[in-house]
Amino acid sequence: MARPLLGEILLENGEITQEQLEKAVEVQKKEGGLIGIILVSQGAITEQTLVKYLAVQAERVTSS
Fold first, then answer.
1. How far apart are CA 45 and CA 35, in angstroms?
2. DSSP 26-61
3. Residue 1: pLDDT over 60
4. pLDDT at 16 over 90
5. With pLDDT > 70 as the criterion, what percentage of the chain qualifies?
6. Backbone angles phi, psi at 33, to 5 degrees
7. pLDDT for position 61
8. Which residues fall within 8 angstroms of residue 36, CB to CB, at 6 or more apart?
9. Residue 4: count of CB within 10 angstroms of its CB
């Protein structure tokens, strides 16, 4: 099974909007980098939110 994408997890949990995700993906395509770090640098989420949802993502990977 494919690894759940962090951006999608944040979106489905209401932490970010589709627009915020699209902006972050554009930055990622142009400059590279990790989507979570980009979202933090854009002020879309806090570092605490990033850590929380990285744990959720890891849990989904190990349970699939």
1. 11
2. HHHHHH---HHHHHHHTTSS-HHHHHHHHHHHHHHH
3. no
4. yes
5. 97
6. 105, 175
7. 82
8. 6, 45, 50, 53, 54
9. 16
DSSP 13: T
Instruction: Please write the tens of the pLDDT for every residue from 28-56.
Output: 999 999 999 999 999 999 999 999 999 99
Cα separation, 19 vs 9, in Å, equals 15
- What's the chain's average pLDDT? 94
Q: How far apart are CA 2 and CA 55, in angstroms?
A: 17
Alpha-carbon distance of 61 to 24, in angstroms, equals 23
Which two tokens mark 64?
Answer: 């699939």
**Residue 33 CB neighbour total at 10 angstroms:** 12
pTM of the model: 0.90
- The C-alpha atoms of residue 19 and residue 3 are separated, in whole angstroms, by 22
